[in-house]
Design goal:
By secondary structure, the protein is α/β, with parallel strands linked by helices. It has helices at residues 10-13, 20-31, 46-58, 78-85, 94-109, 120-124, 161-172, 193-206, 231-243, and strands at 2-8, 35-42, 63-67, 90-92, 127-129, 133-135, 144-149, 152-157, 182-188, 209-215, 222-228, 248-250. It contains nine helices and twelve strands.
Length: 252
Amino acid sequence: MFAEILTVGDELLTGNTVDSNAAFIAKKLTERGYWVRRKTTVGDDVEEIKTVLREILDRKPEVLVISGGLGPTHDDVTMLAVAEALNRKLVLCEECLERIRAFYRELYEKGLIDDPELNEARKKMAYLPEGAEPLENTEGAAPGAYIEHEGVKIFVLPGMPREMKAMLEKEVLPRLGKKKFVQRKLLAEITDESKLAPILNETLERFKVRIHSSPKGFGKYIGIILFGESEEEIERAKAFMESKGIRFAEGW
């Protein structure tokens, strides 16, 4: 199973905002057993988003998670771009409109805004691609969307980290099943990655695991993350490397 992530926002490309969303989404998808093959970032431009989205869909990932660009302002164009990329219309989601209305009414009653009424900018957030299932946003106004398109499960989420994280946990992960992917972090007591490389290659050939290595100080340790579908397979891979003379310390 493989997945891709698309984050949207000019602020990500200018460096004014660190893209923590992509890292969080990748971590959660990996825990569910998905290989995240690509993370792509694009600005707030309809044509750019459409182009990148079509390129991703051509690669046929099982899951695509999109984050960013769902708000009320002029540069929040992700839903429009998704609709056009999929050759669908943008249609008003009445259920979403009512949730947005209630959200702003609550803010007004708390004294956080001075006008609770729906204006065009607020209504804009209630439009989703035709056939999309709305995803509830418990932390903000803009709803997300879930679309199945030619075998790809597409999730469109807000860019605000608090909203994205809540929606990913409550709306996305339950739709991906309960399969868990195990990972183990180890410290290899070896001084040189080049000496470790052939052992890692042989391990990958023998066992159903993936391995990430990262030096933790030249001449000291090399950090290793073993990914697999079971603790047993990871333990077998670890034991094999130990049989080749690698000594491990748990954790990083």
